[in-house]
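Continuing from the previous page...

OK, I double-checked the sequence for Outer membrane lipoprotein Blc against my notes and this is the correct one:
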Amino acid sequence: MNPHKESIMRLTLLPPHLRTLLLLAGSLLLAACSTLPPPGIKPVSGFELQRYTGKWYEIARLDHSFERGMSDVSARYTPQADGSVQVINRGYATAQGSWKQAEGRALFNGDSTVASLKVSFFGPFYGGYHVVALDPDYRWAMIAGNDRSYLWILARDKQLPQAVLDPLLQQAKALGFATEQLIYVPQTRSDS
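Thanks. Re-ran it with the corrected sequence; updated structure tokens here:
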């Protein structure tokens, strides 16, 4: 018997509530593992990884549990010989009074001149990382995740002038992000 038909037959033998739950869980897992940009969002083309390499400071973000309560957040991107990118995220956990660091790996979703990557900090699970706005001199960047609940504004310096930030916020809002929910990240501690 065809293994796909056999699996479908087993699925139809499950009670309807378990079948629905299984299908819903599978759908959610597939959606959570998506590394594509959200609909209507186009990553920057003409991207140069060597120019993006180095340290970036988090200026603003949409809140998520993995960064909640963190200040002084930075990210360092380093190209690797195998074509991947080492990602080191670091931030100060104010409640614990200590620095936290996470190391991940990023891979391009396609052509390396298109700023669309997938990043993993947890083994085989990847999330989208899509640069949707980038300063010509690589001094600031705006990054979207795989849906509109993920947004970061990064800069090479700890502060971003309001004259630069305001147009980025307008662009993010036009792209459908909840800019009124952004957290502006304090960058007051020493890098050491």
